[in-house]
Amino acid sequence: AQKITQTQPGMFVQEKEAVTLDCTYDTSDPSYGLFWYKQPSSGEMIFLIYQGSYDQQNATEGRYSLNFQKARKSANLVISASQLGDSAMYFCAMRGGSFGNEKLTFGTGTRLTIIP
Amino acid sequence: EAGVTQFPSHSVIEKGQTVTLRCDPISGHDNLYWYRRVMGKEIKFLLHFVKESKQDESGMPNNRFLAERTGGTYSTLKVQPAELEDSGVYFCASSQRALLAVLAFGPGTRLTVL
């Protein structure tokens, strides 16, 4: 079974500051993928960043980076230079690398509010 | 390339009525998933199609929910009869590969059962 834990239900961050959203995971699969999605108030799910369990380097996509610490089973999302448009729900998710575990499992999400 | 589309965007029905949600995945994506987010709770997996076959329907809450994907293209999710606790946002997602691939999500259907 796969499990994602996001311990921060809500966060308030000053505009232009960096923010780290926490995510820990648990899985028995040796191969897996970790994802972050953003859900703004409009409701759609926007894919942000992906990290494969065997990737040697931490993933980066523009202002988003994933701080992947495999031994700790954590996959924190770091947003640099936050903007007002970053205010949204953020979901960490994982997908297993074996058949039967291919569905995406989500955490409970973190509501991020950027303060001007 | 068109993204995943869902119809309707909103649906308000009374308890006991039937509602059918539709999802059109990205063309060529064999894998189609349905998820649901009930108010304030986490996003829960409902089921997974590979082409027209149900690969995993372990998340379907009960037999009031019926999903189909005839011909392996679009999918429908029917709730009959709807109950109050079925209210939430229903997301459809698709991917080309099953393992480790990024899921592209549709905009969701917000279902309200009164």
Q: How would you summarize the topology of this molecule?
A:
The complex is a heterodimer of chains A (116) and B (114).
Chain A: E1 3-5, E2 10-14, E3 19-21, E4 24-26, E5 32-39, E6 46-52, E7 60-61, E8 64-69, E9 74-79, E10 88-96, E11 104-106, E12 110-115
Parallel strand pairs in A: 2-12
Antiparallel strand pairs in A: 1-4, 3-9, 5-6, 5-10, 7-8, 8-9, 10-11, 10-12
Chain B: E1 5-7, E2 10-13, E3 19-24, E4 31-37, E5 43-50, E6 53-56, E7 65-68, E8 75-79, E9 88-95, E10 104-105, E11 109-113
Parallel strand pairs in B: 2-11
Antiparallel strand pairs in B: 1-3, 3-8, 4-5, 4-9, 5-6, 7-8, 9-10, 9-11
What report would you give on this structure?
The complex is a heterodimer of chains A (116) and B (114). With 116 residues, chain A is mainly β. Chain A has strands spanning 3-5, 10-14, 19-21, 24-26, 32-39, 46-52, 60-61, 64-69, 74-79, 88-96, 104-106, 110-115. In chain A, a hairpin with a 6-residue loop joins strand 5 and strand 6 (46-52). The mean pLDDT of chain A is 93. In chain B, strands 2, 4, 5, 6, 9, 10 and 11 form a 7-stranded mixed sheet that branches. Chain B contains no helices and 11 strands. Chain B starts with a strand and ends with a strand. Chains A and B meet through strand 5, strand 6, strand 10 and strand 11 of A and strand 4, strand 5, strand 9 and strand 10 of B.
Q: What is the structural class of chain A?
A: mainly beta
Number of strands of chain B: 11
Amino- and carboxy-terminal Cα gap of chain A: 41 Å
State mean pLDDT of chain A (0 to 100 scale).
93
The helix count of chain B comes to 0
Assembly form of the protein: heterodimer
State the largest interface. Answer: A-B, 27 and 27 residues
General shape of chain A: globular
Overall radius of gyration of chain B: 13 Å
- Helicity range of chain A: under 10%
- How much of the polypeptide of chain B forms β-strand, as a percent range? over 45%
Low-pLDDT parts of chain A are none
User: Considering DSSP H and I runs of 4 or more, what fraction of the residues of chain B is helical?
Assistant: under 10%
Low-confidence stretches of chain B: none
Based on secondary structure, the structural category of chain B is mainly beta
**Main beta sheet of chain A: strand number and arrangement?**
6 strands, mixed
Q: What do the pLDDT scores of chain B average to?
A: 93
